[in-house]
Amino acid sequence: MKTNEWISSVPVYEPGRPIEEVARELGFADVSEIIKVASNENELGPSPKAMKAMAVAATEMHRYPDGGCFYLKDKLSAKLGVKPQNLLFGSGSNELIEFLGHVYLRPGTNLVMSEGAFVVYRLIAKLFNAQAIAAPMKKFAHDLDAMLAAVTPETRMVIICNPNNPTGTIVSPTKIKEFLKKLPSHVLAVFDEAYFEFMPDETKPDLIKEIQKGRENVVVLRTFSKAYGLAGLRIGYAVGHENLIALLNRVRQPFNVNAMAMAAALAALDDDKHLAKTRTTNFQGLELFMDGFRKLGLDYVPSYANFILVKTGNGRQVFGELQKRKVIVRPMDGYGLPEWIRITVGTSAQNRAVLKALKEIL
Ligand SMILES: *Cc1c(COP(=O)(O)O)cnc(C)c1O
User: DSSP string of 283-315?
Assistant: First the structure.
């Protein structure tokens, strides 16, 4: 059989380990004792308003969803100050990254990313048999000048993960402004803002404004998976110029976003209380971790997201040892950081338990 020969070299994404799988493997009877802080999920759970909306929506699950996401576009466009035509929803923002691949990539083209950024960008480049050019990082952060220098005539997009997963670093609004001034017009700037809601307000770039002004080569990706606590539902969105959104819309399956996800996201957008609590819990958790790491004499990268990178030495081994203590974190060897692990900030009790387990090991 003939296949697209490059598909067999698409790397397989390594997700955070599911709680049930770890419990089975290590023979833990009570899964509720296991702390999973490996996938940057919201440990406060989904918004209570979203849960209520889902219970109501459950009675209508024999219906196909509204593929156009009318109500959701209506609410979100008003909230962001854009037109509904500037928005597209995806089954997670990961799906939107794939849509960008469909529209912009083919063999011979490339995307520019940062060396230590989210691996999914590499996978998407490979999926379309395009090249991923990784520019070096500077102190665990995106180096926008290095990224600009990496742009070639065949570059279709530059992806900036801000805050970056897995390092938790940001690029300043000023740096972004300079970058956008210098970016060649044939290149799309993709800002992956999966952790936008966790950023301190003064660090948030206003990229929506660029889109309001009609700029065509900027797109912003956000998600309901992280701060909104709806990762299991798979829903995220893109904000961009209406021409760009119209192209992305052409590669979308008719019902790519499910009805339960739409109902939950719609309600979650109204739950300011849950979002505020999520932010506060996270800021306090980051402080607790940084303080704990300093006391343990561990290097860490100050984070602007809901996770933190810490240098434990042999990350794979520490990951294994933590797992035996019912804590699941993410080893970073896959990111070229074999001495580091990434820990998601959880509830206050979880954070303390993670620090305690870490102290025992080290
Ligand atoms: C979690 C994450 C996403 C979004 O994931 P979805 O669940 O598909 O919305 C996108 N980018 C980064 C960097 C992430 O960490």
Answer: HHHHHHHHHHHHHHT--EE--SSSEEEEE-SSH
